[in-house]
From TrEMBL:
Keyword Membrane appears in the UniProt entry: yes
Signal peptide coordinates: none
Protein known as: Pyrroline-5-carboxylate reductase
PANTHER family associated with the record: PYRROLINE-5-CARBOXYLATE REDUCTASE
Start and end residues of each stretch annotated as Disordered: 1-21
Organism whose genome encodes this protein: Acacia crassicarpa
Chain ranges passing through the membrane: 38-57, 77-96, 103-119, 139-163
Superkingdom field: Eukaryota
Length: 169
């Protein structure tokens, strides 16, 4: 008999030997069930996003420096600041979405469990769960878009004034 222990579980689950998963699968399951692993993946992804955005910022500034020398108008600063606002607004929405997905999932589970405790039949739970999922998703997307647009606008305005101030030096 093979033993599989879940994180936080008091009683181990035993499987017959004929249906025991391969050892590589068990190793992967054991690693992925740790919070540390998910925290490392989270930090790695955000580190990659930070490096990419830093490289984008440096390339945008070098493009702006070339354009600012050849043009006497303020249009290159407007173009660069709008592009910076769009990119960093999109990055902030992606970061917020990565944090919001687990929160949405926990909220949805809590609501469905509470409905089950109040004696709703299974078919009603499925129907209510679908309605709740649509409602939570639409609310979260509205908030996400509003917050992302605010960050994009703020980055664009700050970027414009930073580029104009840099150009006047």
């Amino acid at each position: 008999m093979a033993r599989i222990e879940e994180v936080g579980s008091e009683t181990p689950v035993t499987l017959p030997d004929s249906s025991s998963p391969p050892s590589s699968f068990m190793f992967l399951l054991r690693i992925m069930s740790k919070r540390r692993t998910w925290a490392c993946i989270f930090v790695l992804v955000y580190g990659i996003l930070l490096v990419c955005s830093w490289n984008f910022l440096k390339s945008m500034l070098s493009w702006y420096n070339i354009e600012a020398k050849t043009s006497s108008s303020g249009w290159p600063a407007v173009y660069a600041s709008v592009l910076l606002g769009v990119v960093f607004g999109g990055l902030s929405m992606a970061a917020a979405l990565a944090v919001m997905v687990p929160a949405i999932l926990v909220t949805w589970i809590a609501v469905v469990v509470l409905l089950a405790f109040f004696g709703k039949p299974r078919k009603a739970l499925v129907a209510e769960g679908g309605k709740i999922t649509k409602e939570i998703f639409s609310f979260v997307m509205r908030v996400l878009l509003k917050e992302g647009n605010v960050v994009a606008a703020l980055c664009a305005v700050l970027g414009y004034f930073a580029l104009i101030g840099r150009n006047s030096e």
